[in-house]
Write a structure and sequence with these properties.
single chain, 57% helix, 11% strand, four-stranded antiparallel beta sheet, alpha+beta
């Protein structure tokens, strides 16, 4: 016999669960309609506890009796005005309300995809199929010497190449970079950083060039948005994928997110055939006819 968790993973069971959700939502809506017609508002202990807990979370203390009475009065005012607004049809043709209702229904449909906690085998399988998601980019650490073209003008590149020869001949270490070149608002040395991180500081052209240079020797000049730079790569690491044990929490969360997305798609594709769609706007008919 299949376990409960196995049954819940069967597609037919998922469709049945979606059907139950739709019926439950419809029944709740119908029940709310009857309650509104009766003009009756019932405040239970659960309602009061909900108000009290909401205050507690916000202010880190329980409300006083007077504050609780104020919360209840506001709750009743909101409920009465809400019901009157619905009677007047103010909830219709309102894009904000429309979007909120759609979002709530999407949340309900997505929750079906997270009913069952993923097994270790499922997490491992998802990791194996999506290893690229968890790859850590190649990184490089480097030192740079800056040449300000605004101050040096046409001499900037000549000065840079002259200093490059001296740096290579004297085998100047990267830690001395701070003592050389023009003043610069960024650092003279950088720890291991990715292509993207370096590009955010110096620009894509600088980062692209930096990742083509050999390690251990002064190179350049290469251009950034600031000017010209001599650089020396002191260390590099290749791109790599960490073991599952180090990223398991992230993988599990990604798997649940993917299940939620799939659950929403299943729900939408189940209810869509119920609607007959006619588009009279030019240029859209062919596109719509091609959809399932």
């Amino acid at each position: 016999m299949k376990s409960t968790s196995v049954w819940l993973r069967e597609p037919l069971v998922l469709f049945f669960a979606i059907g139950v959700l739709v019926v439950a939502v419809h029944a709740a809506t119908r029940e709310a309609g009857r309650s509104e017609r009766d003009q009756q508002i019932v405040v239970t202990d659960a309602d009061v506890n909900w108000l009290r807990n909401g205050w507690q979370k916000r202010w880190q203390r329980p409300p006083t009796d007077e504050e609780l009475r104020g919360l209840l009065a506001n709750h009743l005012r909101e409920e009465i005005l809400y019901r009157e607004a619905v009677k007047l049809g103010l909830d219709r043709d309102d894009q904000v309300i429309r979007r909120r209702l759609v979002t709530k229904l999407e949340f309900l449909a997505k929750d079906l995809g997270a009913i069952v906690e993923p097994t270790e085998a499922e997490v491992s399988g998802f990791f194996a199929e999506n290893r690229d998601r968890y790859e850590i980019d190649a990184q490089r650490s480097f030192a740079q010497v800056y040449f300000n073209e605004d101050e040096r003008g046409a001499r900037a590149e000549v000065d840079a190449r002259t200093l490059l020869t001296a740096l290579r001949e004297e085998k100047v270490s990267t830690w001395r970079a701070a003592e050389i070149g023009d003043s610069f608002l960024l650092q003279s040395t950088y720890p291991l950083s990715s292509h993207r991180e370096i590009g955010q500081l110096f620009g894509t052209n600088f980062s692209d060039t930096l990742f083509t240079l050999p390690v251990g020797e002064w190179q350049g000049p290469i251009r950034s948005g600031y000017g010209l730079h001599l650089v020396c790569i002191s260390e590099e690491t290749a791109a790599w994928v960490p073991p599952l044990a180090e990223v398991r929490v992230r993988v599990r969360d990604d798997l649940v997110t993917e299940r939620r997305r799939q659950s929403l798609e299943v729900y939408y594709n189940t209810i869509r055939p119920k609607y007959q769609i006619e588009i009279t706007a030019s240029g859209f008919q062919a596109e719509e006819e091609s959809k399932p």
